[in-house]
Amino acid sequence: MAKPDDRSDNVQRIARAIDNTMENLREAEDFVKAHADEMNSSDKADIVAKNERRRDAISGMREEIKDEASASHQKD
In sequence order, which residues have a C-beta less than 8 Å from that of residue 19 and are 6 or more positions away? Predict the structure, then answer.
């Protein structure tokens, strides 16, 4: 039997994902700052591109939180 759709913790789960992604983004930026002179341009570009994808993901997750919060208020 399928489990019921329990979305009660979605906002908190997404918020944790945002926090983790932001932490990874900051760590990557700090790494590049600390080691930029030791890195080849391709590796540096890869990290910069990955951080852009992280920023896009964070933006999407923030929109998802808004949607979840809106859906939660509509149920009440």
Answer: none
CA distances from 56 to 26, 33, 50 (A): 15, 21, 10
pLDDT along the chain (76 residues), means of 10: 78 96 98 97 97 98 91 68
Sequence letter at residue 60: G
- What pLDDT is recorded for position 7? 75
Q: Residue 41: how many CA atoms within 13 Å on its side-chain side? A: 0
Rounded to two decimals, the pTM is: 0.83
In whole angstroms, what is the distance from residue 49 CA to residue 12 CA?
27
Q: Give, in order, the Cα–Cα distances in Å from 60 to each of 1, 11, 19, 31, 74.
A: 32, 13, 13, 25, 21
